[in-house]
Amino acid sequence: MKVTRRAALKSIAVLAAAPWFGRARAATVTLTAGVARQQLVPAEYPQTEVWSYNGAVPAPELRFRQGDTARIVVANRLPQPTTVHWHGLRVPNRMDGVPHVTQPPIAPGAEFVYEFALPDAGTYWYHPHLAGYEQVARGLYGVLIVEERDPIRVDRDVTWVLSDFRLNPDASQREDFESLFDLTHGGRVGNTVTVNGRFTVKDGAFAVRSGERIRLRLVNTAVARIFLLRFNSHEPRVIALDGQPVEPHAPERGLVELAPGMRADLVLDCLQPPGSRHLVMDEVNPRSESRLMAIDYSAEPPLRARPPAGPIALAPNPLAEPDVARAGRHEMLFEGGAMGGLREAQFEGERVPLGALVRQHHLAWTINGVAVKEHAHRPALTLRRDGHYVLSLKNDTAWPHPIHLHGHAFRIIARNGVQTPHREWRDTALLAPRERVDIAFVADNPGDWMFHCHILSHQAGGMMAMLRVA
Predict the structure, then answer these.
(1) Among 91, 119, 94, 111, CA closest to 34
(2) Which CATH number fits the domain that encloses residue 33?
(3) Cβ atoms within 10 A of the Cβ of 380, count?
(4) Could you tell me the residue range of the domain that residue 221 belongs to?
(5) 340 contacts 396 by C-beta, under 8 angstroms
(6) What is the Rg, in whole angstroms, of the alpha carbon atoms belonging to the chain?
(7) Is the pLDDT reported for residue 7 higher than 80?
(8) Which of 11, 158, 421, 463 is deepest in the core (most CB within 10 A)?
(9) Is the predicted pLDDT of residue 16 greater than 50, yes or no?
């Protein structure tokens, strides 16, 4: 799809204020899932049919305060059933949005009311947990922010929702959502990258004023794409990962890595000269380095000559600290996919050759040798409520996997046996090919919780399990 600079500039609003990004703090919020049309790419192309909440991609940004209770009515106007999962939020199990596990699917024309307390501040997001490989890919996602009781002082609080779409030359979505190639390889990676629902790669611009301090919330809502962002001429500091505060630090090698489902909160001090331009690059593939965004400095005089002196560390959320020394330990082995060593898997109580799994059941991935279709019902592990646990996650495949645990946050304590420098809290752990990652948590939220790869065609292709906390 060839895009001219003139057309792109006409079609892409400056992202500074993200004016298409609605905000809501009402006691009751209504989200209507339905079919809409949106100008994802420059105006010389047609609008794209999308599935969205309240007619926009991304959906309205919902804002609450820590300690609030959210009440969200979801109305389904889609041509198929759906649910909503509140990614990263420690909600009661019945509010988790997993079809046939925590709730019945919301039928077309029906509604469901989600209501839950918000004990943790941070950056979270929401999306379907039914046919996510299609529904999320079509545009069903939004951000939910829980503001701190005592937030850090910044000049602006800005969200970038990162995603992509697989479009035809006429800007329509390609309908190959169940591609076997995607399922067995790296998932559905789109050909059109968007920030806040707009194509930005060629001419997207984020307007700043020299001297200002910005809290930049990055959310990866893509179904497969991993972003690796470099902020040229800037030194962002990471203050939260997956919504959970972390000791402020510069990202490793200056790169912010975000796999599907992951979030990062940055403090960005804009210290370059007025009138200058600096690129944000996505370097996930070193052979095809590409621009994501331009940071454009206005001609105004600097707001200040040096960074503000105020603290940027966030107060911790009320998470139970795992005691690694007395924790129960379990191994979780992830296998399958193209160029892997898996030859057969357990499926519905029988050993099935991998080729037959792929051809007959569209399954190609396993956890501990078991492939699951749709959603898991029998727990792979039963954990004692309030017990302390270490899960050793081993990726024995040729592909990366962002592994997401519902209902809990966990500390990442080691990678390939080496202690992590920040022991960061997360809800999604990215496992590189052949990598082992150890996570620790307290199983303090009772119920049946999904545990799966957030490359959503991998999840649909069998890489999911259920952990029961009882």
Answers:
(1) 111
(2) 2.60.40.420
(3) 17
(4) 160-297
(5) yes
(6) 21
(7) no
(8) 463
(9) no
